[in-house]
Amino acid sequence: MGTTISFARPDGKSATGYFARAAKANAPGLVVIQEWWGLQDQIKGIADRFALAGYDVIAPDLYAGTVVPYHDPEAAGREMNSLNFLDATDQTVRGAAQFLARNGAKVGITGFCMGGAVTILAAARVPEFAAGVAFYGIPPAAAAGPADVKIPLQGHFSNRDDWCTPAAVDEFEKGLKAAGKSYELFRYESDHGFVNEQRTVHDRKDAELAWGRALDFFKKHVG
After folding, report:
1. CB 156 within 8 A of CB 136
2. Among the CATH numbers 3.10.100.10, 3.40.50.1820, 3.90.660.10, 3.50.50.60, which is that of 3-221?
3. Distance (Å, whole) CA 183 – CA 160
4. The whole model's pTM is what?
Protein backbone atom coordinates (compact mmCIF):
# COMPACT_ATOMS: atom_id res chain seq x y z
CA MET A 1 0.00 0.00 0.00
CA GLY A 2 2.78 2.44 0.90
CA THR A 3 6.10 3.35 -0.63
CA THR A 4 9.60 4.35 0.43
CA ILE A 5 10.22 8.09 0.34
CA SER A 6 12.98 10.54 1.22
CA PHE A 7 12.31 13.60 3.35
CA ALA A 8 14.41 16.42 4.75
CA ARG A 9 15.62 16.59 8.31
CA PRO A 10 15.81 20.02 10.00
CA ASP A 11 19.61 19.92 9.62
CA GLY A 12 19.24 19.61 5.84
CA LYS A 13 20.27 15.98 5.63
CA SER A 14 18.01 13.41 3.99
CA ALA A 15 16.19 10.55 5.71
CA THR A 16 14.02 7.76 4.37
CA GLY A 17 10.86 6.11 5.55
CA TYR A 18 7.78 4.15 4.60
CA PHE A 19 4.94 6.47 3.55
CA ALA A 20 1.30 5.37 3.48
CA ARG A 21 -1.24 7.90 2.27
CA ALA A 22 -4.84 8.26 3.41
CA ALA A 23 -7.61 8.15 0.82
CA LYS A 24 -8.67 11.73 1.57
CA ALA A 25 -6.70 14.88 0.79
CA ASN A 26 -5.13 17.01 3.54
CA ALA A 27 -5.43 14.21 6.08
CA PRO A 28 -3.95 14.51 9.57
CA GLY A 29 -0.58 12.83 9.98
CA LEU A 30 0.98 10.13 12.14
CA VAL A 31 4.61 9.14 12.60
CA VAL A 32 5.07 5.46 13.48
CA ILE A 33 8.33 4.44 15.17
CA GLN A 34 9.81 0.97 14.76
CA GLU A 35 10.67 -1.64 17.36
CA TRP A 36 14.32 -2.49 17.99
CA TRP A 37 14.12 -4.95 15.08
CA GLY A 38 14.17 -2.12 12.53
CA LEU A 39 11.62 -1.11 9.92
CA GLN A 40 10.02 -4.55 9.71
CA ASP A 41 7.09 -5.42 7.46
CA GLN A 42 4.95 -5.54 10.59
CA ILE A 43 5.60 -1.84 11.26
CA LYS A 44 4.82 -1.05 7.63
CA GLY A 45 1.56 -2.92 8.16
CA ILE A 46 0.77 -0.71 11.15
CA ALA A 47 1.38 2.33 8.94
CA ASP A 48 -0.95 0.91 6.28
CA ARG A 49 -3.61 0.29 8.88
CA PHE A 50 -3.44 3.87 10.17
CA ALA A 51 -3.65 5.09 6.56
CA LEU A 52 -6.85 3.11 6.10
CA ALA A 53 -8.13 4.82 9.27
CA GLY A 54 -7.65 8.21 7.60
CA TYR A 55 -4.08 9.35 8.32
CA ASP A 56 -1.06 10.13 6.20
CA VAL A 57 1.68 8.07 7.84
CA ILE A 58 5.47 7.95 7.82
CA ALA A 59 7.45 5.19 9.52
CA PRO A 60 11.00 6.59 9.43
CA ASP A 61 13.85 4.13 8.95
CA LEU A 62 15.98 4.80 12.03
CA TYR A 63 18.44 1.99 11.19
CA ALA A 64 19.12 3.20 7.62
CA GLY A 65 18.10 -0.05 5.96
CA THR A 66 19.12 -2.60 8.58
CA VAL A 67 16.37 -5.03 9.58
CA VAL A 68 17.04 -7.62 12.27
CA PRO A 69 15.29 -11.02 12.23
CA TYR A 70 13.12 -11.80 15.23
CA HIS A 71 15.31 -14.72 16.33
CA ASP A 72 18.34 -12.45 16.94
CA PRO A 73 17.67 -10.17 19.94
CA GLU A 74 21.42 -9.71 20.48
CA ALA A 75 21.73 -8.08 17.06
CA ALA A 76 18.65 -5.97 17.76
CA GLY A 77 20.20 -4.83 21.01
CA ARG A 78 23.40 -3.83 19.22
CA GLU A 79 21.47 -1.80 16.67
CA MET A 80 19.40 -0.08 19.33
CA ASN A 81 22.40 0.69 21.52
CA SER A 82 24.28 2.18 18.58
CA LEU A 83 21.41 4.53 17.71
CA ASN A 84 21.84 8.19 18.59
CA PHE A 85 18.40 8.64 20.12
CA LEU A 86 18.50 12.41 20.39
CA ASP A 87 19.62 12.83 16.79
CA ALA A 88 16.97 10.35 15.66
CA THR A 89 14.30 12.25 17.58
CA ASP A 90 15.35 15.84 16.91
CA GLN A 91 16.24 15.32 13.26
CA THR A 92 14.75 12.23 11.61
CA VAL A 93 11.51 12.03 13.59
CA ARG A 94 11.02 15.79 13.54
CA GLY A 95 11.70 15.83 9.80
CA ALA A 96 8.95 13.26 9.31
CA ALA A 97 6.58 15.38 11.38
CA GLN A 98 7.41 18.49 9.38
CA PHE A 99 6.81 16.60 6.12
CA LEU A 100 3.36 15.51 7.29
CA ALA A 101 2.51 18.98 8.62
CA ARG A 102 3.43 20.76 5.37
CA ASN A 103 -0.23 21.44 4.53
CA GLY A 104 -1.09 22.60 8.02
CA ALA A 105 -2.39 19.24 9.25
CA LYS A 106 -2.03 18.15 12.86
CA VAL A 107 0.45 15.32 13.45
CA GLY A 108 0.65 12.62 16.13
CA ILE A 109 3.29 10.03 16.94
CA THR A 110 3.21 6.43 18.08
CA GLY A 111 5.86 3.76 18.55
CA PHE A 112 6.49 0.29 19.89
CA CYS A 113 9.21 -1.01 22.25
CA MET A 114 12.21 1.17 21.36
CA GLY A 115 9.72 3.25 19.39
CA GLY A 116 7.65 3.79 22.51
CA ALA A 117 10.66 5.38 24.18
CA VAL A 118 11.25 7.54 21.09
CA THR A 119 7.59 8.57 21.19
CA ILE A 120 8.02 9.93 24.71
CA LEU A 121 11.27 11.65 23.72
CA ALA A 122 9.44 13.29 20.84
CA ALA A 123 6.57 14.26 23.14
CA ALA A 124 9.11 16.25 25.12
CA ARG A 125 11.33 17.56 22.30
CA VAL A 126 9.44 17.92 19.00
CA PRO A 127 7.03 20.87 18.86
CA GLU A 128 5.20 19.69 15.73
CA PHE A 129 3.39 16.85 17.50
CA ALA A 130 -0.14 17.27 18.86
CA ALA A 131 -0.36 13.93 20.73
CA GLY A 132 1.57 10.71 21.33
CA VAL A 133 0.76 7.05 21.97
CA ALA A 134 3.60 4.98 23.42
CA PHE A 135 3.58 1.18 23.47
CA TYR A 136 5.74 -0.54 26.11
CA GLY A 137 8.71 1.81 26.01
CA ILE A 138 10.00 4.57 28.32
CA PRO A 139 13.22 6.55 27.82
CA PRO A 140 15.71 7.21 30.62
CA ALA A 141 14.47 10.05 32.82
CA ALA A 142 17.68 11.98 32.12
CA ALA A 143 16.68 12.11 28.43
CA ALA A 144 12.99 12.86 28.92
CA GLY A 145 11.17 12.56 32.21
CA PRO A 146 7.42 12.74 32.85
CA ALA A 147 7.57 16.46 33.61
CA ASP A 148 9.13 17.11 30.20
CA VAL A 149 6.15 15.77 28.23
CA LYS A 150 4.45 18.67 26.43
CA ILE A 151 1.52 17.00 24.65
CA PRO A 152 -1.34 14.66 25.56
CA LEU A 153 0.10 11.18 25.97
CA GLN A 154 -1.43 7.72 25.98
CA GLY A 155 0.55 4.68 27.12
CA HIS A 156 0.06 0.92 26.70
CA PHE A 157 2.15 -1.35 28.90
CA SER A 158 2.47 -5.03 29.75
CA ASN A 159 2.25 -6.40 33.27
CA ARG A 160 4.56 -9.28 32.30
CA ASP A 161 7.22 -7.02 30.77
CA ASP A 162 10.78 -7.60 31.96
CA TRP A 163 12.20 -4.65 29.97
CA CYS A 164 9.72 -1.83 30.46
CA THR A 165 8.77 -3.19 33.86
CA PRO A 166 5.58 -2.53 35.82
CA ALA A 167 7.68 -0.73 38.44
CA ALA A 168 9.10 1.59 35.78
CA VAL A 169 5.60 2.25 34.47
CA ASP A 170 4.34 3.03 37.98
CA GLU A 171 7.17 5.52 38.48
CA PHE A 172 6.52 7.15 35.11
CA GLU A 173 2.79 7.47 35.81
CA LYS A 174 3.51 8.91 39.24
CA GLY A 175 5.64 11.58 37.58
CA LEU A 176 3.00 12.40 34.98
CA LYS A 177 0.36 12.78 37.67
CA ALA A 178 2.58 14.92 39.88
CA ALA A 179 3.39 17.21 36.95
CA GLY A 180 -0.28 17.60 36.04
CA LYS A 181 0.14 16.17 32.56
CA SER A 182 -2.69 15.14 30.25
CA TYR A 183 -2.38 11.38 29.94
CA GLU A 184 -4.09 8.00 29.74
CA LEU A 185 -2.25 4.86 30.77
CA PHE A 186 -3.37 1.28 30.25
CA ARG A 187 -1.90 -1.99 31.50
CA TYR A 188 -2.47 -5.41 29.96
CA GLU A 189 -1.98 -8.95 31.24
CA SER A 190 0.22 -9.70 28.25
CA ASP A 191 3.89 -9.91 27.33
CA HIS A 192 6.16 -7.23 25.94
CA GLY A 193 5.46 -6.83 22.24
CA PHE A 194 1.86 -8.05 22.43
CA VAL A 195 0.73 -5.90 19.49
CA ASN A 196 3.16 -7.55 17.05
CA GLU A 197 1.17 -10.25 15.27
CA GLN A 198 4.33 -11.74 13.73
CA ARG A 199 5.67 -12.86 17.11
CA THR A 200 4.57 -15.54 19.58
CA VAL A 201 3.98 -12.89 22.27
CA HIS A 202 1.08 -11.48 20.24
CA ASP A 203 -2.20 -11.20 22.12
CA ARG A 204 -4.97 -10.48 19.64
CA LYS A 205 -7.59 -9.42 22.18
CA ASP A 206 -5.33 -6.96 23.98
CA ALA A 207 -3.81 -5.71 20.71
CA GLU A 208 -7.23 -4.87 19.30
CA LEU A 209 -8.29 -3.22 22.56
CA ALA A 210 -5.15 -1.08 22.52
CA TRP A 211 -5.63 -0.28 18.83
CA GLY A 212 -9.14 1.01 19.44
CA ARG A 213 -8.00 3.12 22.34
CA ALA A 214 -5.17 4.60 20.27
CA LEU A 215 -7.51 5.46 17.39
CA ASP A 216 -9.95 7.16 19.76
CA PHE A 217 -7.10 9.14 21.32
CA PHE A 218 -5.74 10.29 17.97
CA LYS A 219 -9.23 11.16 16.73
CA LYS A 220 -9.66 13.40 19.76
CA HIS A 221 -6.28 15.14 19.65
CA VAL A 222 -5.10 14.95 16.03
CA GLY A 223 -8.26 14.62 13.95
Report:
1. yes
2. 3.40.50.1820
3. 22
4. 0.97
